[in-house]
Amino acid sequence: MCSISGAEEEKLVERLIQCTEHRGDSPSLEKVEDLCLGHVLHSIVGEVSQPLGNEGLISANCEIYNWKELREKYGLEAENDAELLLKMLDREGLDALQELDGIYAFAYLKDQELVIARDVTGVNPVWYSKEPFVFCSEKQALEKNEIECRELHPRRILKYNIETSEISFKNREFFEIDVGERKSIDERAEEIKELFLKSVEKRVPEEEDVALLFSGGVDSTMVAAALQELGIGFTAYTAGIQYGNIDAPRDVKWAEEIADEMDIDLEVHESNLEEVEESLREITEWISSSSTVKNGVALPFHLSLQQTDEKVVMSGLGSEQLYAGYHRQQGYLNKECLSGLRGIFERDLYRDNVISFRNGCELRVPFLDHSLIEHALTVPEDYKVNEEYRKLVLRNAAEKLGVPEKVVWRNKTAAQYGSNFDKAINRLAKNNSFDLKQKYLNSLRDKSNNRLVALTSGGKDSNAALYRMKRRNNDISCLLTLRSENKDSYMFDSKKKRKDLEWQSEQLDTPLIIQETKGQKEEELEDLKKGLERAINEYNVEVVVAGALASTYQRDRVEKIAEELGLKVFAPLWQEYQENYMKWLVREGFQVEITDVAARGLEKSWEGKVLDQESVDKLIELSQEYGFNPAGEGGEYETKVVGFPSSMFSDK
Fold this sequence. Notes:
Number of helices: 23
Strand order of the largest sheet: 2-3-1-9-8-10
Distance between the termini: 36 Å
């Protein structure tokens, strides 16, 4: 894999190449009429210089696993996968993408039209700007050149007309849930095992050993067991930190134990606070984010790979999304899995792609093989989660692959916790006089992470969601409210008065977009789309924030419309434990007034009450007695925010 870039100005492309030279060792560029394409080559499959020309011209960052089969099928002359991709596009146009098995991001120029596309899961990144038109593999490169950019959504293909400078988009289909024939869990596990072995095998370069990020958890150990089964040489890497009187990192101790039992060559990196602080200053810039989760996960990833000289690194990422490994995945599990897959490019893949290349490695994620994804979405939900275990069917598959039993049935610990790096960030925050680690990480970055439009009804949940995203160093560029004629709409609460929303907008010093809708089921989504299009055109937003707590109906529909427009979706309250959430609202300083009640146990005297700790406790008590949602998620009561936390208006 490599880096791609392009713009009208040749000097700009030269600077972008300089900013991404860590992604390879062979930089080059080519000027064609009014456009310049750049490339930095990191060769795994044949060293063929790019940009590469035939009928069209291509700059590609790709790993096409079936390129030799396609070369044979169509009788094409190609020395590597990038050349095969070029000739397939010359021959078949964008229909060629349907036949590719692999990951890619490319810019293809032919007949005055530049096409930019990436694999639908989003393993390989592309960022772009409309004015001026410019694109690059990494956001940090564009930021360093003072260019406001956005990530190309993996389910969108960008087309740029060189003559008119017009940009258009074509949307692509994603995976679908298709639970069909009922087989036994043992049969399903056997199918997963076989698909996983094929997935790992195709991702290993010929005659090359690989690196493996290893925690000793079921996912990374399953990759290790597959590599051993296939007879592929590899070295496992892990990292952790111990300082002061904190315990040794659990993941490191466990990884050492499992590596010894399975005869795995394991390299352990023992870090210190000084190294962590220096690394965080780099990582926040590299991944263009001050997110506590992203940086916490990036630390063990980055520091583990400090020791490697392999060209390819294997990761166990993706199993949580496929097999419902997260506790926030509740209710309709396959819908939760699909939602997780839709957002994995933003939450995980960009970070991991960038960190890999900063350490001279290409990232391979066998759990995100398309055949495995398709299969996972056919697995019944009760095979994924039972009363004792999450990822149940995957654990059975791991057992069949030879993963030790004590690993198979071990509970998950997130990388940032098991390695102690989350504790290290906390310590550094205190050392630098910050009361919260998020504030400390925000101080390391001089730009906001994302430009957001916040969906708002004026109630507690939408305002709490935008508050959380603002604290996480995001720019709330505008608010969007849908004013529905249908007061019983499942999607949009329009019971608040317009003046209340305008007051909130003034208090937050954030512009408000008001979109009218008749509130007819499904048709109202088109009005949501119109409102979001206004937010994009007027404020160049890249993310939509929703206050969804537990309504799959609402979240899925917002995701659908956002994806059509190339927007990401953040739902920071999703599956929040409702009792804790209600207490948090008051503790943070929100003044929440109950405006309407519609549940047994809630008398009219609650209407007009502004919640405090005492009334929240009483509300929770009544919810337990009468069986309603304490946060009113089922419409048991409505709220409006009449006062905001003072920290809402403070700087980072």
